[in-house]
């Protein structure tokens, strides 16, 4: 799918500066391109720091592209995970159907980089944002934007906003089905049918499929959690089948679900709906929206994803790591690091110490708390000689969505396991 290569390539011409966290001051004023031409090394950077591993990014991207292709489903990775057009391009070049985003502003940012197909996994009710979506669809005939609606009131308000704006093609809307105690989404199939009828009756909207998010209904791999997810996905499949039988669609349809926790359940329950040629009535594309797979992690997704290594080989591995320096040893069994919650994610588990550079990390070392700018690293049985002030600790992190949003610029290294990692790229984010 299309993206503006010139716009993405131009990021290499942006200058580095003090607004880029942990960039060494002697690089301020240099462009990204100039910096990378010097074969730089990671140890030139300041701490705290977040890095990405080039080899792991490539392997994760290719694994998911091959897995979805073999399953017969399309992939529209959730771009809000990274908000990094450079990484979106890699995913699109690898065969992704489009990019998923969560807000109209995120869609606007993606469109500024030429992304040609966007799944807005949300309702579009802001008048300014919805008017932009309609105008952009009218301006660019090759631009496809899909958004969601989960209530009749939502449909009526969208239609009213669009009727008051300049003429444009109909906006493609998917009916969102939810579940009890979930997030958004019509709570019953009957309610979803009412939404579909309202879309069909509107002047400025077009019914384009069904959508949902199973990850809001469970948070583990327990038998109960898996059963809840399966039951929900079957309801979503039934809703689409009923809409096809009722002749509700005026054109092709999209069926979409799938975070990064239960992608195989989405494939098992929904892949059979794929009907690219419309042999069963309506041309249908099944779209998986997993976003965390590219970066993966050493925490939540490592424990729940069916594609994670080492349970699956080759499997997804974490491409992100934190680096923080020991700045204080105020007690024999305590080290304070210079990275905290402003630098590393903590909503799905605290950072996990993996190794030390310039010191020895005890096997039972554990991060027990984060302040804004400090991590509390407990070292049972250790003394000051084991992990001296000035040594650097590499941290495994959990949840890429809340790791990336703390960094405007992220160095990519050749390998996190290299004795002297080389910086091979810089990834610009937009949050």
TrEMBL record:
It comes from the Bacteria. Residues 319-414 form the D-serine dehydratase-like domain. InterPro entries: D-amino_acid_metab_enzyme, D-ser_dehydrat-like_dom, D-ser_dehydrat-like_sf, PLP-binding_barrel. Pfam families: D-ser_dehydrat. PANTHER family: D-SERINE DEAMINASE, ZGC:162816-RELATED. This is D-serine deaminase-like pyridoxal phosphate-dependent protein. It comes from Nocardia alba.
